[in-house]
Amino acid sequence: MDSNNDLEALKTRLLADLDACEAASGAGLDDLKAKYLGKKGEIYGLMRGMGALPADQRPVFGAAVNVLRDLAEERLAALEAGAAEAAILEKLSASTLDATLPGTRAEMGHLHPLTLVRDDTIDFFRGMGFELAEAREVDHDFYNFEALNIPPDHPARDMHDTFYVDENVVMRTHTSNTQAHYLVEHEPGPVRILAPGCVYRVDNDASHAPMFQQVECLVVDENITFAHLKGTMLLWAEHVFGKGTRLRIRPSYFPFTEPSAEVDVSCSLCGGSGCRLCKNSGWIEVGGCGSVDPAVFEKVGWDPEKYTGFAFGFGIDRIALLKYGIPNIGLLTRNEVRFLRQF
Amino acid sequence: MLISLNWLKRYVDLTESAEDISYALTALGFEVESLENRGAGLDGVVVGEVKTCAKHPEADKLSVCTVFDGVETVPVVCGAPNVAAGQKVLFARVGAVLPARNGNEEFKIKKAKLRGQDSFGMICAEDELGLGESHDGILVLGADAVPGTALADVPGLADTLFEISVTPNRPDALGHLGVARELAARFDRPLRAPASHLQAALAESGTKAADLVSLTVEDAAGCPRYTGRVITGVRVGPSPDWLVHLLKSAGKKSINNVVDLTNFALLEWGQPSHAFDLDALAGKTVVVRKARSGEKLKTLDGVERALEPADFVIADAAAPQVLAGVMGGEASGVSAATKNIFLEVAYFDPRAVRAQARRHGLSSDSSYRFERGVDPLATARVSDYLAALIAAVCGGTVAPGRVEFTAPSHPAAPREVSLRPARASRVLGVPLDADRIEGLLAGLEVKALRREPVEVGGVDYPAIRFAIPGFRGDLEREVDLIEEVARRLDYNTLPAVLPLFPLKPVELPPGEAQARAIRATLRDLGLNEALSLRFTSRKALAALNLAEGDPRHRDFVPLLNPLSEEWELLPTTPLPALLQALERNQNTQEQDVRLFEIGRAFHKRPRTDARDSGVREEPVLGIALMGEWKESSWSGQKQSVDFPRLKGVVENLLERLRIEVEWAPGSSAGFLHPVESADLKTASGELAGVLGTLHPKTQAAYGLKLPVVVAEIYPEVLLRAPRRELKFKPFASHSGSTRDVNVVVAESVRHADILDSLPAKVENLVESRLNSVYRGKGVPEGHKALHYTFTYRHAERTLTDDEVNGAHETVRAALLKNPDIQIK
Ligand SMILES: [Zn+2]
Question: pLDDT value at position B196?
Fold first, then answer.
């Protein structure tokens, strides 16, 4: 039968063309598609020629053409997919980008290291219910000294090299003036405050700056003990210097606390065995503390029999120097970007 | 205070290592700042005897000696001027290693030849051995030193020294006895009284003191207690070795035996005393009185001081001889010729001494102790002790009795203080009973007298009555004793407990919250936070080029005692410090410097009450940008900082703070370019800030070479301004249509003028955006081309082309109506 011969011949040609196209990586794929599967293509040509067949042969012939068409579609689709894949691969491999180039970054800004420590301290104590209290940096002698049980001409004033604005007005020498303001300005009751800020001393060398920052904590209630002071300070020390930090508390003298103490923490670098950071002592001095002296309550009109409390203070600069390994306090206020960009 | 271990051992047996004693001192509240083992490691250094000594034949300043070191006699060349035959010296044998000092490395003694003479060892000066600072010559020992004795075995030479810091409340620890008492209590050991060292008890004979000298105390307030003793026939001369060594350890030079003994008593008891040459006192009279105007006194430091009527002095019949409690005078001091001594031991009022020490800018070992308070009950005891000691060491006879004065107000017996054990437990947070407390305080010589209730606020509490020893003037109140209990327990043994509090939310104060937002925003915009010392100078303010009447150089706050002229006053603006910081960065070749700082401005203002500071303080935000703003890390894209850049930063900041301001172009601030600048005003018209290009004069005055723009913003004003609420606004689902317009205008026509040409409302016009400003080809000289995009949109539907064109025609017509504007 002619038609069946045509079908076989077509199939042979089709397969040959497909193989050739495949071998040529899909070149001429579109032409091939038009040639066989187009509206005017050869497979449709066979279909159209089917009318010339006897009616009983048509279903068989039609089915055979359909098989051939499916074969063509399937092979062509596969060739098409392969060609598309190849085209993408070619495009990708054509890129000359050097992925070792640095990223295109914006110049980021940086907060001052003392701000980092200050905010961290505020957040730590705020999390425990301490309110932020702020007081003046220029203050009357009364709040900086007298209310804190440091009368004029007292040798304890030798511990404070004070900048004077006039006879009665000073640059505050510690954040403890906040205590005095807070107690004077509030009715007796529970107190939990935190006072960070700049303080001033007439001092300027490698380890002392005339302005530095302190944080002071004050807790007052009816049954606050020295043990509470130790517990609270230990939490803070662990927060700053890591779990397992130990405290050493040794007697000292501040006229506004009694008992008064200096606080050392175990050296975070050597763990207490001694190194350069801790000058081989194993301990690093971080601040002063004590139970509120009853004389302070008396000065501000609170009942010293009813209320007890504790206060402790430490230098933010000192913590920052320790934490970030900054060798010289002077770097903190020179404002060189090669320093500031590191934080 | 320098504490010698040898000295401490006179009063308490200490077998602990230096480190353990150091730890104990620190735990007791006497922080050990340094520890020195003097004479340690000097194995090859022994006592030597100089057998012969002759001039070096070829060198004037050298001597050739022979030294017997206990084993052999060797030749030694010595350069010291004081070397002589017969001396006992410290001799470093060949092989000995001398310590490093003055930056020199340690030094090993070798056989040497000096100008042709053999030298097998070295005769040492004290500084060469690290025994002291003196390099006046070789150290000459007492005649009884035995050649060959190792340095460590020569009594008093090797020592351990603790530099302790003594807080102002503990004058008792300004003497070795006080420190020994603390250690004895801590180690639970007996304390030996100083008198036990006296060879003989006080022996008095001859004429009574009162017949040899007369005493009048006129100033009982300054001098509530005074004792004088007379010792006749003393032989002033060199001190014995034990005294020299102890004083040397404590950092004191030996002067003569009498002066050394007064210094010895000072460093033992913490009690100053003064020895007068009795025969130099006019009228054999001692008067404690106020100084008279016009009187002068040449003190022992060689300074002639004009006295003031506020000063109080020890005078003879003619003139002041001592600035009381501070320093003696040259005229009546003990000299080699002195035969008879008047010995003063007194209690001077701490405030009075402090006041006159400060008045004369003179702090002495005496004034330091009197200011802090010496033992008011020990005056006579020390007087007797020291008189006996002087007689024992210097010879002479102690005249019977004392001349003395006691003010009626002066305490005669120990102070008594009550302590409630329950209160101690409540303050320290640890249970304590009466027996325990009594036991702890007994070690400090605080004696329990009896148990008797004490009344506080109308309630009787069980309590213990304690007698406070005179040397503990700091123990005045119950809480002072509670501290002693805690100290005896050791603070480190007290428990650590967390307090319990009711829950309470804590917000940041508005100013603090705002400061955080400002810092975070500016950081995110690429700026670095600066922190400057809050000091400035008139010169730095003047360099800003401020206008007459500018508040920045009005009512500023000068310091009475500034560190330097550069830091003579408190800042009224953060800008000088920021500009100085820019200059520092310029010096390190930084090309892109972006700083901001929330500084503080200080201004004088009237006092609001008696305890007001009279100073207004407010935060001021300063921003300073310099050089070329790099757009990215490495692409090379960068642009000189300019007004729009700075304005953008400030706009971004205000956007984050949700505050709207009015921009008034052309700021009057003198440090800003008059055109490239603006003032910021809040809705209520308050000045919220100024910003702009730095004025060329200011730029030059601060030595800045790269372009600089600065801003000064007032956070407190912004805090008062209304903040835009965060509220959702519905947005159109249609994209809208855009039309572009290029306008050409003269340079003098501003962007704001162009927008002002548009009608207040154009139908469906939702945005007028400036895309670019162009000058150059195609634009006439003195003109600029501005490219705008106008967006038209309806909230609910897509506009037809006709509608868009109609609206845009309104815009174009309005622009064209302005004769200054051409549309291209
Ligand atoms: Zn360490």
Answer: 65
Lowest average pLDDT, out of B196-205, B406-415, B583-592, B611-620, goes to B196-205
- Using CA atoms in the order A70, A71, A76, A79, what is the torsion angle rounded to 10 degrees? 130
* Cβ contact, residue pair B533, A251, below 8 Å: no
A112, A231, A340: residue with CB nearest B497: A231
CA distance to A97, A121, A286, B353, per residue, from A240 (Å): 45, 9, 11, 45
Q: What is the percentage of chain B residues whose pLDDT exceeds 70?
A: 99
- Selected residue with higher pLDDT from B462 and A28: B462
Residue B394 three-state SS: helix
Helices (H) and strands (E) in chain A, counts: 11, 10
The DSSP annotation for B667-697 comes to ---TTEEEEEEEEEE-TT--EEEEEEEEPHH
**pLDDT-derived band of residue B101, with 50, 70 and 90 as boundaries?**
confident
Alpha-carbon gap, residue B193 to B177, rounded angstroms: 8
Of the candidates B787, B788, B790, B791, the one whose C-alpha atom is nearest the C-alpha of residue B735 is: B791
Q: Where do the domains of chain A lie?
A: 3-93, 113-340
Helix (H) or strand (E) holding A231: helix A226-241
Mutating which of A230, A250, A283 best tests the B interface, going by the most B Cβ atoms within 10 A? A250
User: B188, B33 in Cβ contact below 8 A?
Assistant: no
Nearest 10 degrees: Cα torsion B14, B17, B20, B21: 40
User: Quick check: A1 pLDDT over 70?
Assistant: no
Contact assignment for A202 to B496 by CB distance below 8 Å: no
Give pLDDT, residue B313. 95
Q: Do A262 and B31 touch (CB under 8 A)?
A: yes
Closest listed residue to residue B567, CA positions, set B558, B556, B555: B558
The answer to whether the CB atoms of A335 and B562 lie below 8 A apart is no
Average pLDDT of B733-755?
A: 90
CA of A288 to the centre of ligand 1 (A): 20
| pLDDT (average), residues B729-745 | 88
The confidence score (pLDDT) of residue B474 equals 94
Mean pLDDT in chain B? 92
- Phi/psi for B525 (5° steps) reads -85, 0
As its CATH architecture, domain A113-340 has 2-Layer Sandwich (3.30)
A323, A240 Cβ separation under 8 angstroms:
yes
Min mean pLDDT across A198-212, B134-148, B343-357, B462-476 is at B134-148
Evaluate whether B531 touches B498 at the Cβ level (below 8 Å): no
**What is the pairing mode between strands B45-56 and B59-68?**
antiparallel
Q: What is the ipTM of this complex?
A: 0.87
On chain B, the residues whose CB falls within 8 A of the CB of A230 are 494-497
